[in-house]
Specification:
With 359 residues, the chain is mainly α. The protein has a single domain, classed as ABC transporter involved in vitamin B12 uptake, BtuC, CATH 1.10.3470. Helix content is 71%, strand content 0%. Helix 9 packs across helix 10.
Amino acid sequence: MDALLHALNGIPVLGLVFQFVEYFITSLPFTAHVAVQLAVPICLAALCGVMCERSGVVNIGLEGIMLTCAFTGWFAGAVVTGVLGPGTPTPIFGFTVPLLLALVAAILAGMLLSLLHAWLSISVRADQIISGAIINIAAIGLTGYMNTLLSTQTLAATSNFSALRIPAAVAGFPVVGWLINALFGQGPIGIATVLIVIIFQILLFRSRWGLRTRSVGEHPRAAETVGIDVIRLRYRNVVMSGALAALGGAYLSMEATNAFQAGMTQGRGFIGLAAMIVGRWTPVGAFGAALLFASSQAISQSISVSPPPGDLGTLLSHVPTQFFDALPYLITIVVLAGLIGRSIAPAADGRPYQRESAS
């Protein structure tokens, strides 16, 4: 077997492909774990988009909501830590009172921003694209300005959520051990994301709420005739979706790191919209697309930690890291270009609904 692999790896050009496949299989446990970490904020943004657009409301303000919530969670955590002290972290996930209060503050901020978008889109019937763009622009400007002001202040140091340690016996279990470690060897928000995807998928297609949500996104007039309050359901779903985007922002500043940087979302909200489209407006599909977009950066980290041997390692050592950082955006463009005309959005997506008068 070793002689066959050596012969395949020695083939000009094609041998590099075989070497890469061999390296990818060998490093799969580490790469998969990192890919899930990188996919969490993208997936949460995509789930927010799925809930909104299944209800008939376009929300391109995901980037702004995530950025605002990342700042809110970090700032609230620093303030509460300064008042109450750092607290004693729990053995699992490292929960502390400041962290939990900061997470609640981030979720409330996301729901308030979503309420603003819902009011503009549903009640005012403003252009939904413009409404989302306003949220994005305002969030980038305000969080950047506030971060600059706070950079001159001394804030209390905060902790972040810790990842769940999977026992080595479980992580090393044949076939599925690496998958268990990748999905559940995460922090609380990461694990919650996996559970939310499963629950959301079931509720959207196997519950009365899901049926009503899909009906108001496809044919709100018909939904109204059977007694569904379209306006109320759209409001509720858009506000609830803000909590999902808020978790994505909080993940960046409270689980992946314990700090905030201006523009730290780095387009993840927009990639989340792409993941929603690639996933055909389904939670499981959105999660799979998020993993696809995050995989290139995961491979980049794997190469930097443990580069492959031989000619492949020599070749990859000359590839700038910026290339791998740009790959998620390039993959997004390529995949979306291939899906134009194939992914069909809900029929009433982006169309303001107005009740008919009683007379």
